[in-house]
């Protein structure tokens, strides 16, 4: 079977994964989702001119020759109406956020004043200019303004803006519900002694966490032994319940396994069984069953994680409307040689990335690079993308995919 380049394999997957439906959700539920339509304001923010400082609201023309004594005509706190009008020769005590009273066109901060006659007057020691310390109505957001375009990933600041203009819900692409299924007779859950040939299932907890980290709702479909009937029921149940299904195990060439038989049967023979030009995560399967994308990941723990990062995660993000579906990528310095041999594949070396005193990202390879060595993967925070060839010398440049 010919090797498929990583980008080509990912393109096949992305082309087959449609965006999820649009619905409106309360602001509290929109965090991490993507807007499906422009978000506009019908209100001004701030809704009225107010002061940015504690001090005195004055007429700037009255302060041209400081110090000047002005009569205090009232006090305005945040939440009050304007209350008073400031005439020539007058001032009003004002607290941060309070509305600017009619007649005033500047605020003098309290540190540049001193009270007199028991608070009946104030001496201003500053020449104020019109607009000083005044936040004008609509200065941040104007009525009718588009505050965020369609395709915006909603973060905490976006929620604050939407709340500030009176929105209570927002149209977004639905959050994907993703089922995770482990396959293999050798797998067991929990503690207790292992019988000969048994291993504990690490893939399912890992993949469920990766699904949640991608902003999806994770559904644990459990583990399934190598029984065609059980596998068929598990996959059918998953595709009926979920927007996508992720399986691990049984996709390698030569596997004595029923996963291929069942997925081929349920997909009507359209399942795409690939050998990707990458190490680890060479075997990968993808297809659509009853309208639901199914990602068949390899069973080796590191390969399963890497395959999810390369293919499943971008597709799930695209389904939820994300424009940028890839992990951050940058150019780094290899602090140790990243040796390899030419084999026609892109090697993804598990590395620890950190910023150096030279302002550049530096990477050091993990001690274990085997596709079964999950501990070394867990201690890494990036993957170095080492192209086909002899590798990267110590001190050489290498592209890095950041995982955290």
The main sheet orders its strands as 1-19-21-22-18-14-17
Count of separate DSSP helical elements: 7
Poorly predicted regions: none
What is the name of the CATH class of the largest domain? Alpha Beta
Number of β-strand runs: 29
* Mean pLDDT reading: 95
Described by the principal axes of the CA atoms, the overall outline is: elongated
Distance between the termini: 34 Å
Could you tell me the CATH topology label of the largest domain: Molybdenum Cofactor Biosythetic Enzyme, Chain A
The figure for the number of domains is: 4
Report the portion of residues in β strands. Answer: 25-35%
CATH architecture verdict of the largest domain:
3-Layer(aba) Sandwich
Roughly what percent helix? 10-25%
Tell me what you see in this structure:
It is a single chain. With 404 residues, the protein is of the alpha/beta class. The protein folds into 4 domains: 3-21 and 175-319, Molybdenum Cofactor Biosythetic Enzyme, Chain A, CATH 3.40.980; 22-45 and 139-173, Molybdopterin biosynthesis moea protein, domain 2 (Alpha-Beta Complex), CATH 3.90.105; 50-135, Molybdopterin biosynthesis moeA protein, domain 3; 329-402, Beta-clip (Beta Barrel), CATH 2.40.340.10. It is 19% helix and 32% strand. The chain contains 7 helices and 29 strands. The strands form 8 sheets. It has a 7-stranded mixed sheet with strand order 1-19-21-22-18-14-17, sandwiched between helices. A 6-stranded mixed sheet has the order 8-5-7-6-10-9, with no helix packed on it. A 5-stranded mixed β-barrel has the order 23-26-25-27-29. A hairpin with a 4-residue loop joins strand 9 (113-116) and strand 10. Helix 1 crosses helix 6, helix 3 (203-213) packs parallel to helix 6 (301-319) and helix 4 (228-241) packs across helix 5. The longest helix is centred in the last third of the chain and has 19 residues, at 301-319. The model has no long low-confidence stretch (mean pLDDT 95).
């Amino acid at each position: 079977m010919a090797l498929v380049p990583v980008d080509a394999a990912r393109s096949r997957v992305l082309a087959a994964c449609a965006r999820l439906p649009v619905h409106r959700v309360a602001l509290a539920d929109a965090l991490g989702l993507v807007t499906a339509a422009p978000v506009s304001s019908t209100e001004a923010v701030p809704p009225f001119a107010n002061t940015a400082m504690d001090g005195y609201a004055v007429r700037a023309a009255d302060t041209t020759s400081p110090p000047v004594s002005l009569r205090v005509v009232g006090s305005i706190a945040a939440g009050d109406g304007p209350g008073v009008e400031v005439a020539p020769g007058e001032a009003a005590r004002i607290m941060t956020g309070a509305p600017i009273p009619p007649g005033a066109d500047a605020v003098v901060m309290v540190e540049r004043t001193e009270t007199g006659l028991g608070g009946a007057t104030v001496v201003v020691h500053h020449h104020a200019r019109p607009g000083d310390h005044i936040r004008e109505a609509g200065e941040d957001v104007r009525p009718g303004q588009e505050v965020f375009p369609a395709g915006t990933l909603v973060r905490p600041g976006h929620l604050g803006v939407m709340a500030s203009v009176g929105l209570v819900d927002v149209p977004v692409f639905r959050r994907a519900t993703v089922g995770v299924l482990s396959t293999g007779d050798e797998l067991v859950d929990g503690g207790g002694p292992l019988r000969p040939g048994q291993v504990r299932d690490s893939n399912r907890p890992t993949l469920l966490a990766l699904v949640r980290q991608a902003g999806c709702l994770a559904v644990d479909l459990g583990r399934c032994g190598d029984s065609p009937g059980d596998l068929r029921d598990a996959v059918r149940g998953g595709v009926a319940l979920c927007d996508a299904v992720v399986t691990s195990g049984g996709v390698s060439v030569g596997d004595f396994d029923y996963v291929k038989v069942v997925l081929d049967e349920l997909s009507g023979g359209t399942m795409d069984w690939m050998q990707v030009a990458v190490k680890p995560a060479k075997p990968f399967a993808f297809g659509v069953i009853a309208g639901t994308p199914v990602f068949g990941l390899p069973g080796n723990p590191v390969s399963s994680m890497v395959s999810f990062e390369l293919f499943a995660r971008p597709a799930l993000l695209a389904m939820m409307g994300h424009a940028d579906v890839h992990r951050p990528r940058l150019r780094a310095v290899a602090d140790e040689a990243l040796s390899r041999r030419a084999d026609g594949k892109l090697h993804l070396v598990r590395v620890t990335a950190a910023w150096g005193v030279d302002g550049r990202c530096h990477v050091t390879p993990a001690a274990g690079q085997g596709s079964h060595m999950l501990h070394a993967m867990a201690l890494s925070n990036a993957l170095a993308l080492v192209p086909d060839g002899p590798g990267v010398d110590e001190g050489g440049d290498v592209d890095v995919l950041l995982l955290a």
